[in-house]
Design goal:
The complex is a heterotrimer of chains A (343), B (77) and C (530).
Chain A: H1 2-26, H2 39-42, E1 52-56, H3 58-61, H4 66-73, E2 77-81, H5 87-100, E3 105-109, H6 121-128, H7 135-144, H8 151-155, H9 158-161, H10 170-174, H11 212-228, E4 231-236, H12 246-258, E5 262-265, H13 270-273, H14 290-307, H15 317-342
Parallel strand pairs in A: 1-2, 1-3, 3-4, 4-5
Chain B: H1 2-11, H2 31-45, H3 56-59, H4 62-74
Helix pairs in contact in B: 1-2
Chain C: H1 6-21, H2 27-42, H3 44-78, H4 84-132, H5 150-166, H6 175-183, H7 196-203, H8 211-244, H9 252-282, H10 300-306, H11 309-325, H12 327-340, H13 342-365, H14 369-387, H15 389-398, H16 405-422, H17 424-427, H18 431-443, H19 452-456, H20 462-482, H21 487-492, H22 496-513
Helix pairs in contact in C: 1-2, 2-3, 2-6, 3-4, 3-5, 3-6, 4-5, 8-9, 8-20, 8-22, 9-16, 9-18, 11-13, 12-13, 13-14
Classes of the chains: A alpha/beta (343), B mainly alpha (77), C mainly alpha (530).
Chain lengths: 343, 77, 530
Amino acid sequence: MRKRLIGITVSFIVAAVGLWFLQKLLMPKYMDDIVEGAMIAEYYDEEKNHDVIFIGDCELYENISPAVLWKEYGINSYIRGSAQQLIWQSYYLMEETLQYEKPKVFVFNVLAMKYNSPQSEAYNRMTLDGMKMSAAKIKSVQASMTEEEDLIDYIFPILRYHSRFDELGKIDINYLFKKDKVTFNGYYMRVDVKPAQNIPEAKPLGDYNFGDTAYFYLDKMVELCEKNNVELILVKAPSLYPHWYDEWDKQMSEYALDHNLKYYNFLNSTDDIGLDFAKDTYDSGLHLNLTGAEKLSTYFGNILSTECDLPDRRNDKKLKEIWEEKLKAYDDEKNRQYAENEK
Amino acid sequence: MEELLEILNELHPDIDFNTQQNLVDEKILDSFDIVTIISEVADVFDITISAEEIVPDNFNSASALYSLIEKKMDDED
Amino acid sequence: MLFTSFEFLVFLAVVIVCYYIVPKKIQWIFLLAAGYVFYFIASPVYLIYIMTTTVSVYIFTRIIQTRKDTFDIHFKKIKKQLDRQQRKDIKSQEKKKEFRLMMICLLFNLGILAVCKYTNFAIGNINFLLGAVGSSKRLLTVNMILPMGISFYTFQSMGYLIDVYRGTCSAEKNLGKLALFVSFFPQLVQGPISRFNDLSKSLFEKHTADYNTITFGMQRILWGFFKKLVIADRLLPAVLEICGDTSKYQGAYVLVGMLFYALELYADFTGGIDIAIGTAQTLGIHVTENFRRPYFSKNIKEYWNRWHITMGSWFTDYIFYPISICKPMLKVSKFSRKHFGEFIGKRVPIYLSSFAVWFATGVWHGASWNFIVWGIGNFVVIMISQECEPFYRWFHSKINIKDKFLFKLFQIVRTVLLMSCLRMFDCYRDVPLTFKMFGKMFTGFDISQLSVSAFQLLGLAISDYIILFGGMILLVAVSIIQRKGSVRAKIAERKAPVRFIIWYALFLTVLIFGTYGIGYDSSQFIYNQF
């Protein structure tokens, strides 16, 4: 009897290890072309004592460079960004982040208010798969699932990715356990230029009011930040497209006023920032490229350090060391990309 | 018994019905054979075998079938 | 709740654990509750149907049984005062009354089945006739509820009703136990159709958790999952593609579709039955086998003894025999012998009742002419092969190849092809189209159509074909080993690491190569806007 029990236990352990290994193998690595899927997981390797944490979609992770915030203002920041991050996903990322550290400021990009319901399974995956297992993750999954999805597929992603067996390649072996960094503190660097031309005309909408669910999670964000004594700042990045309607802007301004929050619509200050959409965007105005992101970071860093009273931590020895290394990698990548562009 | 064996042999000349004990289980007799047997038996012995009596036990050997027939001829209980 | 759904696995896990925890006395009650929950999840309305059938069968079998019992006592008392003829008369009078009771219940339940399953089919045919005679009137089709597994549980309970009437089985006194027999959840969806005498042996017993029983059951379930998910569901898109676009897939593709369907159906159906029987086995309950390597059959008759066995034997016992040996039929037989000679007279009962059986089998399979023609097709083939029997016998007496491997292989291939041809009625939309496509298989056959690139347009990739091929090899290998006894028992004799590797490998095969979930399409993950 005893022997049998030991046998069963050993079998289960071996089976579980095998499954875990296979799961690792079959999950997409997001290391070559679609790096967006690898962003969320990178946070866990960081030294967690940031002053500012940006949470939101591509309008943050392609438009703000924490390296500039450090270099120019001594602000230690990080972007927990992912593609089409929906507001409940941002909220639960906030909840999760607070389990690790307590920043002074959370910055949230309000474009996500336009989505009131789950959108796409693939984008859900890119935001959620990277999260470590936690109550926040489960809640985020439940809030994000489209009709075709099941919670169990997030708990055991092998159930989702098992059919990738015929796409396995070298990349899956190389990055089985160790991944490369795809961002610089959450910032996704692009140096190429594609001027903004022919921005599509904004289509009139039937209803300009943001949805109830979106507001529900915005309220929860406010509440969470109050409870934890973190300042919540709302921003709208200066991306020209998707269109940011005046009606939307009004709602956000009013919301910020009502809840005593700071709200910056950078679309109104492109001239002050010095953005030139003939040079500072790599995809015709959707996202800023490096020069654009650095300009915006300089501008926003100034606001953060003066209005939010953030200390300059460039004298912190430990942080300085970390950042020196990061800045080197940042510059290397910058040079590599410029060199490649010139070819 | 002779008459019964005659019926059976006509159906399957290649089978020795005196010794075979598993006519149904070994699928020597199929449902068509059984129906033919029953209708011939009805003619020859003037008895009716009913559907509930079609069980392997009654058809597995010529002797088993014959005892069923005897029982039926004897009395119906 | 599909057998191959995650919900079913959770349901099953909960049922198995609770089943062995609850007091042994109420194990069967727990099973009944589980069956009703299973049914309730599918749809609460279904419960009304299954309960109606259960209660009506219970009442009538009890009445018949009580009649039988009192009659027997009464008959024993008076028997000595009667002569043979009187005894016969009294008995047959009683039998008649019991028959009437049985028929009421039978017709009532078959009526429910007919109304649920065939109302719209009937309306469709009436409308067709109305159109044919030039009337502009049309009946509207109605939205009928078709309770899950109604064909199976109705047949199972009707078998029981007839058994009680025949006296081959005594009526169950406990309504709950009868309800469990009717609603035993593993076989509720697609069979097997059990007999009361077989199933009741282990169904109401007390069961103690036994390592071998439970693991054997789970292994069988896993094997069923393999057949269903790795083979059947992977192949299905190609079958649908070929049968769905008849203008595109002609000639050689009809043959390909036919063979694909043969494999798909086999893997799907036997896989489902494996899951059903395996599930019952984890609960210590023995369910009759429904398949015995049917694709190894050497002729159609044998095939029908090995494919969907419980349905075939149901039709034989409850339709074929009663019709072929009933008194009116014997009279017809006598009459035709007198007038048309021995040759025809002998065949009349068999032909008539076989026709009835195959017509009924066709109707039972589904409410459409396709199935009816399919059933009749089987009848025709079986009768032709029956009539050819003397020729075969003569042939084999002249040329001794009966036991040669190649000849056996030829017979097997011929049988599989013949059955697959008949099954085309299952694939194509309607009967005329099926005949047309059958013709196209011969007229438009062009082997060069079957290029590697063309196969990839059927909705399957190269990797799918490799998996299917490997899966098929495994299926055949297991079937060959199985001829000499249980494969699971053979594996169980091996050392623990070997056992572990075999079952773990099968589990991983299902997990990775199974067709389930959303499916990974890397193009979805391409970053386009946000």
